[in-house]
Amino acid sequence: SMSKRPGQAAHSGPNKRKRTDNKSKQQKPQHHKQDNKKKSQARPQSQTKPQARPQPQTKPQSQAKSQPQSNKPLSGGHKIIASHYADSLDQSKALCDWLLSPVTHDEYKEKYWEKQHLLVQRHDTQPDYYKGWFHSSDIQRMLKTEDIRYTRDIDVTNYVNGKRVTLNPAPLSTNDDGTPKEYAPADGKWIWNKFNGEGVSLRLKCPQEFSPPLHKMMFILEELWGAGVSANVYLTPKSHQGFAPHYDDVEVFILQVEGSKRWRLYPHRDASEHLDRTSSPNFDQADIGSPFLDVVLKSGDLLCLPRGCIHQAISTDEHHSLHITVSTGWRNSLSDYLKLVIPRAIDRATKSNLEFRQSIPQDLFSFFPPKTEEDKAKVKAFEEIVASAMIKVAQNIDTQEAVSAAAKNFLHCRLPFPEPELLNKKREKEICELKKQRRDFFGSI
Prior knowledge:
The longest helix has 23 residues, at 373-395. The strands form two sheets. Strands 1, 2, 3, 6, 7, 8, 9, 10, 11 and 12 form a ten-stranded antiparallel sheet that branches. A two-stranded antiparallel sheet has the order 4-5. The model is unreliable at 4-12 and 22-69 (pLDDT under 50). By secondary structure, it is of the alpha+beta class. It has 13 helices and twelve strands. It is globular.
Protein backbone atom coordinates (compact mmCIF):
# COMPACT_ATOMS: atom_id res chain seq x y z
CA SER A 1 0.00 0.00 0.00
CA MET A 2 2.98 2.31 0.23
CA SER A 3 3.04 4.26 -2.95
CA LYS A 4 5.80 6.88 -2.98
CA ARG A 5 9.42 6.26 -2.26
CA PRO A 6 12.00 8.49 -0.61
CA GLY A 7 13.50 10.77 -3.23
CA GLN A 8 10.55 10.45 -5.61
CA ALA A 9 8.52 13.38 -4.32
CA ALA A 10 7.81 15.75 -7.15
CA HIS A 11 8.05 18.92 -5.11
CA SER A 12 10.58 20.51 -2.85
CA GLY A 13 8.63 21.09 0.32
CA PRO A 14 5.35 21.90 2.04
CA ASN A 15 2.66 24.07 0.46
CA LYS A 16 4.33 24.58 -2.91
CA ARG A 17 1.34 23.77 -5.12
CA LYS A 18 -1.58 26.19 -4.86
CA ARG A 19 -4.64 25.52 -6.97
CA THR A 20 -5.22 27.90 -9.83
CA ASP A 21 -8.98 28.02 -10.35
CA ASN A 22 -8.94 28.89 -14.05
CA LYS A 23 -6.58 26.04 -14.90
CA SER A 24 -8.60 23.60 -12.81
CA LYS A 25 -11.84 24.55 -14.54
CA GLN A 26 -10.32 24.03 -17.95
CA GLN A 27 -8.95 20.61 -17.11
CA LYS A 28 -11.85 18.95 -15.28
CA PRO A 29 -12.40 15.34 -16.35
CA GLN A 30 -15.79 14.17 -17.59
CA HIS A 31 -16.99 12.82 -14.26
CA HIS A 32 -16.98 16.36 -12.86
CA LYS A 33 -20.15 17.08 -14.86
CA GLN A 34 -22.47 15.60 -12.28
CA ASP A 35 -25.88 16.61 -10.96
CA ASN A 36 -25.49 19.43 -8.46
CA LYS A 37 -29.05 19.28 -7.08
CA LYS A 38 -28.17 17.43 -3.89
CA LYS A 39 -25.90 19.83 -2.05
CA SER A 40 -25.80 17.63 1.02
CA GLN A 41 -23.67 15.07 -0.86
CA ALA A 42 -20.97 17.57 -1.76
CA ARG A 43 -17.73 17.82 0.14
CA PRO A 44 -18.52 18.52 3.82
CA GLN A 45 -18.83 22.24 4.64
CA SER A 46 -19.43 23.95 7.94
CA GLN A 47 -23.23 24.00 7.33
CA THR A 48 -23.34 20.27 6.40
CA LYS A 49 -24.88 17.79 8.78
CA PRO A 50 -22.22 16.44 11.18
CA GLN A 51 -22.65 12.82 10.06
CA ALA A 52 -21.67 13.75 6.49
CA ARG A 53 -18.23 14.87 7.59
CA PRO A 54 -15.33 12.48 8.07
CA GLN A 55 -14.29 14.28 11.27
CA PRO A 56 -16.29 13.84 14.46
CA GLN A 57 -16.45 17.51 15.45
CA THR A 58 -16.94 20.78 13.59
CA LYS A 59 -14.05 23.25 13.35
CA PRO A 60 -13.86 26.61 11.65
CA GLN A 61 -11.72 26.31 8.52
CA SER A 62 -9.17 28.73 9.96
CA GLN A 63 -8.44 26.26 12.75
CA ALA A 64 -8.17 23.20 10.53
CA LYS A 65 -4.39 23.04 10.65
CA SER A 66 -1.97 20.22 11.21
CA GLN A 67 0.23 22.48 13.38
CA PRO A 68 -0.39 22.71 17.13
CA GLN A 69 -2.31 25.82 18.19
CA SER A 70 0.02 28.72 18.90
CA ASN A 71 -1.60 29.58 22.25
CA LYS A 72 -0.85 26.13 23.64
CA PRO A 73 2.57 25.01 24.86
CA LEU A 74 4.27 22.48 22.62
CA SER A 75 4.57 18.96 23.96
CA GLY A 76 5.68 15.49 22.90
CA GLY A 77 7.02 15.18 19.38
CA HIS A 78 6.07 18.76 18.51
CA LYS A 79 8.28 20.06 21.31
CA ILE A 80 11.17 17.85 20.20
CA ILE A 81 11.13 19.03 16.57
CA ALA A 82 11.00 22.66 17.73
CA SER A 83 13.86 22.30 20.24
CA HIS A 84 17.57 22.93 19.75
CA TYR A 85 19.93 20.00 20.27
CA ALA A 86 23.71 20.31 20.26
CA ASP A 87 23.83 17.01 18.37
CA SER A 88 21.13 16.45 15.76
CA LEU A 89 21.43 12.69 16.24
CA ASP A 90 20.26 13.15 19.85
CA GLN A 91 17.19 14.97 18.54
CA SER A 92 16.48 12.17 16.10
CA LYS A 93 16.79 9.56 18.85
CA ALA A 94 14.55 11.56 21.20
CA LEU A 95 11.92 11.84 18.49
CA CYS A 96 12.02 8.11 17.79
CA ASP A 97 11.77 7.37 21.52
CA TRP A 98 8.65 9.55 21.64
CA LEU A 99 7.18 7.87 18.54
CA LEU A 100 7.58 4.38 20.06
CA SER A 101 7.06 5.20 23.75
CA PRO A 102 7.15 3.42 26.14
CA VAL A 103 9.47 1.32 23.98
CA THR A 104 12.78 3.06 23.33
CA HIS A 105 14.58 3.17 20.01
CA ASP A 106 17.37 0.97 21.39
CA GLU A 107 14.87 -1.62 22.62
CA TYR A 108 12.97 -1.52 19.33
CA LYS A 109 16.14 -1.98 17.34
CA GLU A 110 17.15 -4.95 19.47
CA LYS A 111 13.81 -6.79 19.75
CA TYR A 112 11.54 -5.68 16.92
CA TRP A 113 13.34 -4.07 13.98
CA GLU A 114 13.01 -6.43 10.98
CA LYS A 115 12.02 -9.22 13.39
CA GLN A 116 8.42 -8.87 14.55
CA HIS A 117 5.53 -6.45 14.88
CA LEU A 118 5.18 -3.98 17.75
CA LEU A 119 1.82 -2.93 19.18
CA VAL A 120 1.54 0.05 21.55
CA GLN A 121 -1.94 0.90 22.87
CA ARG A 122 -2.43 4.33 24.44
CA HIS A 123 -6.08 5.07 23.55
CA ASP A 124 -7.34 4.84 27.15
CA THR A 125 -4.84 7.33 28.56
CA GLN A 126 -3.38 9.29 25.61
CA PRO A 127 -5.87 9.37 22.71
CA ASP A 128 -4.35 12.64 21.43
CA TYR A 129 -0.80 11.28 21.33
CA TYR A 130 -0.47 11.79 17.56
CA LYS A 131 -2.58 14.94 17.37
CA GLY A 132 -1.33 17.84 15.27
CA TRP A 133 0.54 15.98 12.51
CA PHE A 134 -2.37 15.52 10.12
CA HIS A 135 -6.17 15.70 10.37
CA SER A 136 -9.12 14.84 8.13
CA SER A 137 -9.87 18.56 7.87
CA ASP A 138 -6.46 19.02 6.24
CA ILE A 139 -7.64 16.87 3.32
CA GLN A 140 -10.75 19.04 2.97
CA ARG A 141 -8.60 22.18 3.01
CA MET A 142 -6.14 20.77 0.48
CA LEU A 143 -8.85 19.78 -1.97
CA LYS A 144 -10.06 23.39 -1.86
CA THR A 145 -6.78 25.26 -2.02
CA GLU A 146 -4.02 23.02 -3.39
CA ASP A 147 -3.28 21.62 -6.83
CA ILE A 148 -4.11 18.00 -5.95
CA ARG A 149 -3.99 15.45 -8.78
CA TYR A 150 -5.36 11.92 -8.93
CA THR A 151 -2.69 9.20 -8.79
CA ARG A 152 0.12 11.70 -8.28
CA ASP A 153 -1.19 13.04 -4.98
CA ILE A 154 -4.32 11.09 -4.03
CA ASP A 155 -5.85 7.66 -4.68
CA VAL A 156 -9.55 6.86 -4.40
CA THR A 157 -9.91 3.15 -3.67
CA ASN A 158 -12.40 0.55 -2.52
CA TYR A 159 -12.39 -3.14 -1.61
CA VAL A 160 -15.44 -4.81 -3.13
CA ASN A 161 -16.22 -8.54 -3.25
CA GLY A 162 -12.70 -9.43 -2.20
CA LYS A 163 -11.03 -7.25 -4.84
CA ARG A 164 -9.34 -3.86 -4.61
CA VAL A 165 -10.74 -1.26 -7.01
CA THR A 166 -8.96 2.02 -7.82
CA LEU A 167 -11.38 4.71 -9.00
CA ASN A 168 -8.88 7.38 -10.12
CA PRO A 169 -9.90 9.02 -13.42
CA ALA A 170 -7.61 8.59 -16.40
CA PRO A 171 -4.79 11.13 -16.94
CA LEU A 172 -5.61 14.21 -19.00
CA SER A 173 -2.81 13.32 -21.41
CA THR A 174 -0.15 10.67 -21.96
CA ASN A 175 3.30 10.45 -23.50
CA ASP A 176 4.04 8.56 -26.71
CA ASP A 177 4.89 5.45 -24.70
CA GLY A 178 1.57 5.55 -22.88
CA THR A 179 2.88 6.80 -19.53
CA PRO A 180 0.94 9.63 -17.86
CA LYS A 181 1.95 13.14 -18.90
CA GLU A 182 -0.59 15.19 -16.97
CA TYR A 183 -2.86 13.83 -14.25
CA ALA A 184 -6.46 14.97 -13.80
CA PRO A 185 -7.09 17.53 -11.05
CA ALA A 186 -8.90 16.12 -8.02
CA ASP A 187 -12.53 17.20 -7.65
CA GLY A 188 -13.44 17.51 -3.98
CA LYS A 189 -17.20 17.31 -4.57
CA TRP A 190 -16.87 14.04 -6.49
CA ILE A 191 -14.45 12.63 -3.91
CA TRP A 192 -16.68 13.40 -0.91
CA ASN A 193 -19.74 12.06 -2.73
CA LYS A 194 -17.84 8.80 -3.22
CA PHE A 195 -16.58 8.85 0.37
CA ASN A 196 -19.99 9.43 1.96
CA GLY A 197 -22.07 7.50 -0.58
CA GLU A 198 -19.94 4.48 -1.58
CA GLY A 199 -17.50 4.18 1.30
CA VAL A 200 -14.31 4.70 -0.69
CA SER A 201 -10.98 5.20 1.04
CA LEU A 202 -8.61 8.06 0.33
CA ARG A 203 -4.86 7.61 0.26
CA LEU A 204 -2.89 10.83 0.32
CA LYS A 205 0.64 10.50 -1.02
CA CYS A 206 3.52 12.63 0.29
CA PRO A 207 1.35 14.35 2.94
CA GLN A 208 4.48 16.04 4.30
CA GLU A 209 4.26 18.48 1.38
CA PHE A 210 1.18 19.93 3.07
CA SER A 211 2.10 19.49 6.74
CA PRO A 212 5.33 21.23 7.83
CA PRO A 213 5.40 19.44 11.23
CA LEU A 214 5.13 16.03 9.56
CA HIS A 215 7.81 17.01 7.05
CA LYS A 216 10.20 17.94 9.84
CA MET A 217 9.41 14.79 11.82
CA MET A 218 10.33 12.65 8.84
CA PHE A 219 13.43 14.71 8.03
CA ILE A 220 14.73 14.29 11.59
CA LEU A 221 14.03 10.53 11.70
CA GLU A 222 16.03 9.98 8.50
CA GLU A 223 19.24 10.74 10.36
CA LEU A 224 18.69 8.04 12.99
CA TRP A 225 17.39 5.42 10.58
CA GLY A 226 20.07 6.09 7.97
CA ALA A 227 17.55 5.75 5.15
CA GLY A 228 14.91 7.81 3.38
CA VAL A 229 11.58 8.23 5.16
CA SER A 230 8.22 8.29 3.37
CA ALA A 231 4.62 8.73 4.50
CA ASN A 232 1.02 8.21 3.41
CA VAL A 233 -2.26 9.25 5.03
CA TYR A 234 -5.33 6.98 4.85
CA LEU A 235 -8.90 8.15 5.46
CA THR A 236 -11.63 5.49 5.51
CA PRO A 237 -15.34 5.82 6.38
CA LYS A 238 -16.70 3.57 9.10
CA SER A 239 -17.25 -0.11 8.29
CA HIS A 240 -15.19 0.00 5.09
CA GLN A 241 -11.92 -1.31 3.70
CA GLY A 242 -9.90 0.30 0.92
CA PHE A 243 -7.13 -2.20 0.18
CA ALA A 244 -6.72 -5.92 -0.31
CA PRO A 245 -4.46 -8.06 1.92
CA HIS A 246 -0.82 -7.52 0.95
CA TYR A 247 2.65 -6.84 2.33
CA ASP A 248 4.99 -3.91 1.79
CA ASP A 249 8.67 -3.53 0.93
CA VAL A 250 9.30 -1.02 3.74
CA GLU A 251 9.28 -0.92 7.52
CA VAL A 252 5.90 0.59 8.44
CA PHE A 253 4.95 2.67 11.50
CA ILE A 254 1.15 3.08 11.71
CA LEU A 255 0.06 6.11 13.75
CA GLN A 256 -3.67 6.02 14.51
CA VAL A 257 -4.82 9.65 14.61
CA GLU A 258 -8.63 9.59 14.36
CA GLY A 259 -11.28 6.96 14.90
CA SER A 260 -10.53 3.25 14.92
CA LYS A 261 -9.49 0.48 12.56
CA ARG A 262 -9.28 -3.30 12.84
CA TRP A 263 -5.93 -4.74 11.75
CA ARG A 264 -5.18 -8.37 11.01
CA LEU A 265 -1.64 -9.69 10.53
CA TYR A 266 -0.85 -13.03 8.86
CA PRO A 267 2.14 -15.41 8.87
CA HIS A 268 4.50 -15.55 5.90
CA ARG A 269 3.42 -18.05 3.31
CA ASP A 270 7.09 -19.02 2.89
CA ALA A 271 10.44 -17.81 4.24
CA SER A 272 11.27 -15.72 1.16
CA GLU A 273 8.53 -13.21 2.06
CA HIS A 274 10.28 -12.15 5.27
CA LEU A 275 11.97 -8.78 4.58
CA ASP A 276 11.06 -9.05 0.90
CA ARG A 277 12.56 -6.24 -1.20
CA THR A 278 9.44 -5.91 -3.36
CA SER A 279 5.82 -5.40 -2.35
CA SER A 280 3.41 -8.26 -2.87
CA PRO A 281 0.48 -8.37 -5.27
CA ASN A 282 -3.00 -8.17 -3.78
CA PHE A 283 -3.91 -11.45 -2.11
CA ASP A 284 -7.24 -13.25 -2.00
CA GLN A 285 -8.50 -14.16 1.45
CA ALA A 286 -7.96 -17.85 0.63
CA ASP A 287 -4.25 -17.17 0.02
CA ILE A 288 -3.38 -15.98 3.52
CA GLY A 289 -4.98 -18.32 6.06
CA SER A 290 -5.78 -17.22 9.62
CA PRO A 291 -4.33 -14.10 11.30
CA PHE A 292 -1.88 -14.37 14.17
CA LEU A 293 -2.93 -10.89 15.37
CA ASP A 294 -6.42 -9.37 15.25
CA VAL A 295 -6.57 -5.98 16.99
CA VAL A 296 -8.45 -2.68 16.83
CA LEU A 297 -6.28 0.44 16.76
CA LYS A 298 -7.82 3.53 18.33
CA SER A 299 -6.63 7.12 18.49
CA GLY A 300 -3.18 7.30 20.04
CA ASP A 301 -2.20 3.70 19.23
CA LEU A 302 0.83 2.53 17.23
CA LEU A 303 1.45 -0.59 15.16
CA CYS A 304 4.84 -1.33 13.54
CA LEU A 305 5.22 -3.91 10.79
CA PRO A 306 8.44 -5.35 9.35
CA ARG A 307 8.85 -5.72 5.60
CA GLY A 308 6.94 -8.66 4.22
CA CYS A 309 4.29 -8.78 6.97
CA ILE A 310 0.93 -9.61 5.37
CA HIS A 311 -1.84 -7.36 6.66
CA GLN A 312 -5.27 -5.92 5.98
CA ALA A 313 -7.36 -3.30 7.78
CA ILE A 314 -11.01 -2.27 7.98
CA SER A 315 -12.51 0.65 9.89
CA THR A 316 -14.87 -0.22 12.71
CA ASP A 317 -18.64 0.26 12.78
CA GLU A 318 -18.34 3.08 15.29
CA HIS A 319 -15.93 5.55 13.63
CA HIS A 320 -14.24 6.63 10.46
CA SER A 321 -10.46 6.13 10.57
CA LEU A 322 -7.48 8.31 9.74
CA HIS A 323 -3.97 6.98 10.19
CA ILE A 324 -0.52 8.04 9.08
CA THR A 325 1.98 5.47 7.87
CA VAL A 326 5.60 6.52 8.27
CA SER A 327 7.93 4.14 6.47
CA THR A 328 11.63 3.57 5.92
CA GLY A 329 14.13 0.94 4.78
CA TRP A 330 13.23 0.92 1.09
CA ARG A 331 16.06 -0.57 -1.01
CA ASN A 332 18.43 -0.32 1.95
CA SER A 333 19.43 -3.97 2.43
CA LEU A 334 22.78 -5.71 2.23
CA SER A 335 21.74 -6.83 -1.23
CA ASP A 336 21.45 -3.21 -2.32
CA TYR A 337 24.82 -2.42 -0.77
CA LEU A 338 26.45 -5.31 -2.62
CA LYS A 339 25.06 -3.97 -5.87
CA LEU A 340 27.20 -0.91 -5.22
CA VAL A 341 30.22 -2.91 -4.05
CA ILE A 342 30.52 -5.70 -6.63
CA PRO A 343 30.62 -3.68 -9.88
CA ARG A 344 33.38 -1.46 -8.49
CA ALA A 345 35.35 -4.47 -7.27
CA ILE A 346 35.02 -6.15 -10.68
CA ASP A 347 36.35 -3.03 -12.41
CA ARG A 348 39.32 -2.94 -10.05
CA ALA A 349 40.05 -6.65 -10.46
CA THR A 350 39.83 -6.32 -14.25
CA LYS A 351 42.59 -3.74 -14.30
CA SER A 352 44.98 -5.90 -12.28
CA ASN A 353 44.19 -9.43 -13.55
CA LEU A 354 44.72 -10.55 -17.13
CA GLU A 355 42.26 -13.46 -16.91
CA PHE A 356 39.40 -10.97 -16.29
CA ARG A 357 40.12 -9.41 -19.67
CA GLN A 358 40.33 -12.71 -21.56
CA SER A 359 37.34 -13.95 -23.57
CA ILE A 360 34.95 -16.57 -22.29
CA PRO A 361 35.24 -19.97 -24.08
CA GLN A 362 34.11 -19.80 -27.69
CA ASP A 363 32.12 -23.02 -27.33
CA LEU A 364 30.51 -21.99 -24.02
CA PHE A 365 26.96 -22.12 -25.37
CA SER A 366 27.48 -25.56 -26.89
CA PHE A 367 28.10 -27.36 -23.61
CA PHE A 368 25.38 -25.58 -21.56
CA PRO A 369 23.35 -27.44 -20.53
CA PRO A 370 25.73 -30.42 -20.47
CA LYS A 371 24.66 -33.46 -22.47
CA THR A 372 27.77 -35.65 -22.37
CA GLU A 373 30.55 -36.44 -19.92
CA GLU A 374 32.84 -34.17 -21.94
CA ASP A 375 30.31 -31.35 -21.57
CA LYS A 376 30.16 -31.91 -17.82
CA ALA A 377 33.94 -31.67 -17.59
CA LYS A 378 33.91 -28.37 -19.50
CA VAL A 379 31.16 -27.00 -17.24
CA LYS A 380 33.17 -27.91 -14.14
CA ALA A 381 36.29 -26.26 -15.53
CA PHE A 382 34.39 -23.07 -16.34
CA GLU A 383 32.78 -22.95 -12.90
CA GLU A 384 36.24 -23.23 -11.33
CA ILE A 385 37.39 -20.25 -13.40
CA VAL A 386 34.39 -18.23 -12.20
CA ALA A 387 34.91 -19.25 -8.56
CA SER A 388 38.57 -18.24 -8.72
CA ALA A 389 37.58 -14.91 -10.26
CA MET A 390 35.05 -14.22 -7.49
CA ILE A 391 37.77 -14.67 -4.88
CA LYS A 392 39.77 -11.96 -6.61
CA VAL A 393 36.67 -9.75 -6.82
CA ALA A 394 36.25 -10.05 -3.06
CA GLN A 395 39.92 -9.15 -2.58
CA ASN A 396 39.32 -5.94 -4.54
CA ILE A 397 36.39 -4.61 -2.52
CA ASP A 398 36.98 -1.07 -1.29
CA THR A 399 34.57 -0.68 1.63
CA GLN A 400 35.18 3.05 2.01
CA GLU A 401 34.35 3.66 -1.63
CA ALA A 402 31.16 1.61 -1.44
CA VAL A 403 29.98 3.24 1.80
CA SER A 404 30.59 6.65 0.27
CA ALA A 405 28.52 5.65 -2.76
CA ALA A 406 25.72 4.48 -0.47
CA ALA A 407 25.93 7.77 1.46
CA LYS A 408 25.65 9.70 -1.79
CA ASN A 409 22.49 7.79 -2.63
CA PHE A 410 21.10 8.50 0.84
CA LEU A 411 21.80 12.23 0.60
CA HIS A 412 20.29 12.34 -2.87
CA CYS A 413 17.10 10.63 -1.66
CA ARG A 414 16.70 12.63 1.54
CA LEU A 415 13.68 14.84 2.03
CA PRO A 416 14.15 18.51 1.21
CA PHE A 417 15.27 20.70 4.07
CA PRO A 418 12.24 21.77 6.17
CA GLU A 419 10.75 25.23 5.77
CA PRO A 420 12.93 27.89 7.46
CA GLU A 421 10.13 29.24 9.66
CA LEU A 422 10.04 25.94 11.52
CA LEU A 423 13.74 25.96 12.32
CA ASN A 424 15.88 27.42 15.00
CA LYS A 425 17.97 29.80 12.89
CA LYS A 426 21.23 28.91 14.62
CA ARG A 427 20.59 25.18 14.14
CA GLU A 428 19.61 25.77 10.52
CA LYS A 429 23.00 27.37 9.83
CA GLU A 430 24.83 24.53 11.58
CA ILE A 431 23.01 21.82 9.61
CA CYS A 432 23.49 23.60 6.30
CA GLU A 433 27.23 23.81 6.92
CA LEU A 434 27.38 20.15 7.96
CA LYS A 435 25.51 19.04 4.83
CA LYS A 436 27.87 21.14 2.70
CA GLN A 437 30.88 19.46 4.32
CA ARG A 438 29.37 16.00 3.72
CA ARG A 439 28.65 16.73 0.07
CA ASP A 440 32.14 18.13 -0.43
CA PHE A 441 33.61 14.99 1.09
CA PHE A 442 31.46 12.50 -0.82
CA GLY A 443 31.91 14.46 -4.02
CA SER A 444 35.67 13.97 -3.79
CA ILE A 445 35.45 10.17 -3.65
